[in-house]
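Response to reviewer comment R2.3. The reviewers asked that we include at least one raw input/output pair. We reproduce the pair for FAD/FMN-containing dehydrogenase here without editing.
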Amino acid sequence: MTQAAATTPASVQSFVDACRAAIGAAHVLTDPHDTAPFLTDWRRRYTGAACAVLNPSNAQEVAALVKLAVEHGIALVPQGGNTGLVGGATPDASGHQAVLTLRRLNRVRDIDPHNNTITVEAGVVLAEVQARAADAGRLFPLSLAAEGSCTIGGNLATNAGGTGVLRYGNTRELCLGLEVVTPQGELWDGLRGLRKDNTGYDLRDLFIGAEGTLGIITAAVMKLHPQPAAQVTALAALASPHAALDFLALAQRMAGPLLTGFELMSDFCLRLVGRHFPQLRYPFADTHPQVVLLELSDSESEAHARALFEQLMEAALEAGIVDDAVVAESLAQSQAFWDLREHIPLAQAEEGLNIKHDIAVPISRIGHFIDETDAAIAQALPGVRMVTFGHLGDGNLHYNVQAPEGVDAKGFLAEHQGPINQIVYDSVHRHRGSISAEHGLGQLKIDEAAHYKSDLEVRLMQAVKHALDPLNLMNPGKVLR
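Raw output as returned:
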């Protein structure tokens, strides 16, 4: 990869001074107390250094800062809500990179109910997009645990998934157009709210999921959907992931597009939640190896959705697919069901450090993947505890490994993360899956991605990077070496 000329203390200081002149000294942070929140990732796995944290207010200021970075040979690390899980928005330790936060680009530019679109800047928090859509009588279906702090720019940069992918798709499927500052400081206006546009290469999709390595997303046109008349939630207890797959097939056949959520949770996941959050009550009298949370979003009525749920559960129980089931009788109970699912990562954190995997395999292979990989890990490290949960409807598992009871979690992580990663990723590869389903690669998974991708695929990615960012100033050290 071509590099810019080596930075020097003089060039760094010259760059910082030029940024102050461009966007105002108050928005160029250099004091360690002010920059600290921007230099450590959410999991506190990586901490870097930066010559400055730049806080522009609009796309034109972003473009001006990129031009200054090119002029002075300074690499930029774009950052949204800093909620990523792979270190993709954290600078290196050199102190020669600058963090460019998009938080002040926080305006909703337009809502078009007839076109079912909302145009938002990159720094708008996801929950705000959801709320503004609801005010207009529409639904923005992207939903994930960090929605109160993550930003739409970060969601696009990582192609975030979440709980609604089964029905609505990843962030990529929810985006119609982008505004992007290129690595040369030019501003591309691709904010077209079109569902059909066959006029050449799809530049929009090139930037989505690129983690800021090809340019800086400053705004986007996102799809909206009609608000459902009712949402009904249920929990179903099952004997195995294989039974869960049979239940998914039945639910899709009977509910079709009304099925908007299908989340798998192992018994140990729920026991972990109960241990650390005892107010979240286990919903069944007996324990079960697997529990599925499913949700129907109905455009007709709650009564229609409940009737369909009853038919589905009756069919599943009669077929022996489901062992027990409970349907939420109120919004509060529905929220309690979702709280069980959403508190699994929090319970893991309370239990101690763990080895996380955000993987995807073909839906039909999930049961076999879990059986084979659980057995391989148990043979290699007896006593480890598997925390397996995720979005079964789209093949995305959070396949995490907790240290054995009573074992020092930090020491376990340091000694065993590499071997466990290899077991998991080799199994993912055998099942023709992906080692990153919705979190991205960042700096955490660069080497693993290069190992499991073909040489041709890596070369093609490098060619795209070099063509757009020949100086390697856009978030270097992420996604690709």
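The first strand starts at residue 28 and ends at 29. The chain has a mean pLDDT of 95. Further pairs are available on request from the corresponding author.
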